[in-house]
Q: What sequence folds into this?
């Protein structure tokens, strides 16, 4: 039958070891999943080691009154294939045990290995510097049992929703009991029901954050754009100039706008770019089509209509789909810097900060001169774009903005 390790879990970020106070099991005992089998004490609290699955105790290696390092093997369970499949508990593998006999001794040094995990003999350790961070390297802290998953489904909860709960299970995982205690704890707090818009934004951001995202920024002088804008009737929004420069730069380097699917980078077939519009309790992103092919005055009318429709929530699904990137002007809120998050189906989002008067050195006049400067902030999927590529993209956008008559 498969063997399942009982290990000393990571009981907190700064916990390096724990002392066994009491063993609640003996060899031959039958246990169930999430059963508290060992009581341990850290320098912060008394806690319990629980089982990852049900089975029969075949070995106990930990001793009461002894300190053991995080990750030490404290015992072994035998479990059925059905129980392993039901709980997803890690096993030691068919070839997980190696024995080395020395000079006829019966004692063996057992090493249990599994992909990306290592279970070692219990380590008798001297008291060390308390609070020394030790990474557990275990899957337990991220493991959610089928029972816990079913309860979360009943309540409509996702993994991110339980991140605030301190888990008491093996490896620091959150048990159903932990969840119920937490829900009871917050039951009397003031609360409100999240709107469908808020839930939609939350879901999109959760999926976006599953990727490795990074952000870079670049200060850009806005004076040429502001001067050009002042001569136009009607005056185009500043966001339109940035949209146009962004689309041209992406069209010149299509790889930066691609998105990763498996082992392929899919490149855009059109440079359709969204613009983030703040609405009540959320954000909507209407998409402007073929931005690289249309000048700012040509984009202005469609832009105005889409923004108005977004603010009144009258956008059709077709008007919010198919974008390859987004521009967000958070400078309208007076913000000088930000790290916006791209939509799940996009690799890039370009943020525009508030324009601020700054002194800048001029070689032409040999003195500091006042300029209006903004910060362009680009967040990107680091699987597709590297920092150097993102920096070059920002520099190209900044260059284009110095010649607004060409936009």
A:
């Amino acid at each position: 039958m498969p063997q399942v390790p009982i290990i000393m879990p990571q009981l907190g970020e700064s916990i390096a070891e724990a002392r066994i106070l009491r063993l609640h099991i003996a060899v031959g005992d039958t246990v169930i999943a999430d059963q508290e089998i060992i009581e341990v004490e850290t320098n912060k609290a008394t806690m319990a080691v629980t089982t990852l699955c049900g089975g029969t105790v075949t070995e106990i290696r930990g001793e009461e009154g002894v300190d053991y390092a995080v990750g030490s093997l404290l015992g072994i369970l035998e479990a059925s294939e059905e129980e392993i499949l039901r709980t997803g508990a890690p096993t030691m593998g068919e070839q997980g045990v190696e024995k080395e006999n020395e000079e006829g001794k019966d004692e063996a040094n057992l090493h249990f290995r599994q992909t990306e995990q290592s279970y070692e003999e219990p380590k008798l350790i001297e008291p060390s510097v308390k609070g020394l961070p030790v990474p557990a390297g275990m899957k337990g802290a991220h493991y959610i049992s089928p029972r816990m998953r079913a309860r979360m489904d009943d309540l409509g909860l996702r993994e991110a929703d339980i991140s605030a709960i301190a888990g008491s299970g093996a490896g620091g995982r959150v048990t159903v009991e932990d969840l119920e205690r937490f829900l009871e704890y917050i039951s009397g707090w003031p609360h409100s029901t999240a709107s469908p818009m808020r839930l939609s934004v939350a879901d999109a951001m959760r999926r976006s954050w599953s990727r490795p995202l990074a952000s870079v920024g670049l200060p850009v002088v806005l004076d040429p754009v502001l001067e050009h804008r002042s001569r136009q009737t009607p005056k185009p929004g500043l966001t339109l100039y940035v949209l146009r420069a962004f689309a041209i730069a992406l069209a010149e380097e299509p790889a930066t706008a691609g998105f990763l699917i498996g082992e392929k980078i899919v490149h855009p077939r059109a440079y359709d770019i969204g613009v983030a519009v703040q609405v009540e309790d959320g954000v909507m992103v209407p998409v402007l089509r073929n931005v690289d092919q249309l000048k700012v005055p040509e984009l202005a009318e469609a832009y105005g209509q889409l923004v108005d429709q977004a603010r009144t929530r009258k956008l059709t699904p077709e008007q919010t789909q198919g974008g390859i990137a987004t521009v967000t002007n958070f400078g309208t809120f007076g913000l000088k810097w930000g790290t916006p998050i791209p939509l799940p189906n996009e690799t890039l989002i370009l943020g525009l900060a508030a324009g601020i008067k700054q002194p800048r050195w001029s070689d032409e006049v040999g003195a500091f001169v006042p300029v209006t400067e903004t910060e362009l902030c680009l967040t990107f999927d680091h699987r597709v774009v590297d920092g150097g590529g993102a920096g070059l993209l920002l520099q190209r956008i900044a260059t284009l903005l110095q010649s607004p008559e060409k936009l």
